[in-house]
Design a protein that fits this description.
It comes from Geococcyx californianus. This is MTMRD protein. GO terms for molecular function: guanyl-nucleotide exchange factor activity. The protein is mainly alpha-helical. The protein has a domain of 117 residues. It contains eight helices and four strands. A hairpin with a 6-residue loop joins strand 1 and strand 2.
């Protein structure tokens, strides 16, 4: 699963290399709007006649991509690092399948680590039931729940949560690396 995702990550890094240099921040609205200059992107890469890339850039998924990844100050991830620093490595590996496979496996490992920061917790072994355990009769019945106490605890939790500040994630924001400009990107 992670290796397939790593292959797609490499593909999109190549496909969108230099996209950050074609982002424009429009500040005439109350909230700044990020616009992607499609014609400049396609023109500088010499792909104006490429129907596939034109359709990708006109799609709703790409509009969401621009609005999510466009801000210059946000949490960076593996895709940002690939687009900014690894595109040349990806191109160099095209003629060398063992190096390509090694890089895909490295990316897959990084994806796995990002999703499972504590691997010892993710894979706990459940002991196999002993022989004849299903024949035991000394199983205690589930205790009755005191409905009044449950309501009290719920109300107490609601009261506490209303006065508490909203929880925020501790993602560290940074300036997103721009990578090479579109003019320096070569066609694939």
């Amino acid at each position: 699963d992670k290796e397939v995702r790593a292959i797609f990550l490499r593909l999109f890094a190549q496909l969108f290399q230099g996209y950050r240099s074609c982002l424009q921040l429009i500040r005439i609205h109350a909230e700044p709007v990020i616009h992607f200059h499609k014609a400049a992107f396609l023109g500088q890469r010499g792909l104006i006649e490429n129907d596939f890339l034109t359709k990708v850039l006109n799609g709703m998924a790409f509009a969401g991509f621009v609005s999510e990844r466009g801000p210059p100050f946000r949490t960076c991830d593996l895709f940002d690092e690939l687009v900014a620093f690894e595109v040349e490595r990806i191109k160099a590996e095209e003629g060398n399948p063992p190096k390509m496979i090694k890089h895909v496996r490295e990316l897959a490992e990084q994806l796995f680590k990002n999703e499972n920061p504590n691997p010892h917790i993710a894979f706990q072994k459940v002991p196999r039931p002993t022989e004849g355990s299903h024949l035991r009769v000394h199983i205690l019945p589930f205790p009755r729940i005191n409905e009044c106490r449950v309501q009290e605890l719920l109300q107490e939790g609601l009261t506490r949560s209303q006065g508490a500040p909203p929880a925020t994630r501790g993602d560290k924001k940074c300036v997103v690396p721009a990578g090479p400009p579109v003019g320096m990107c070569t066609c694939f």
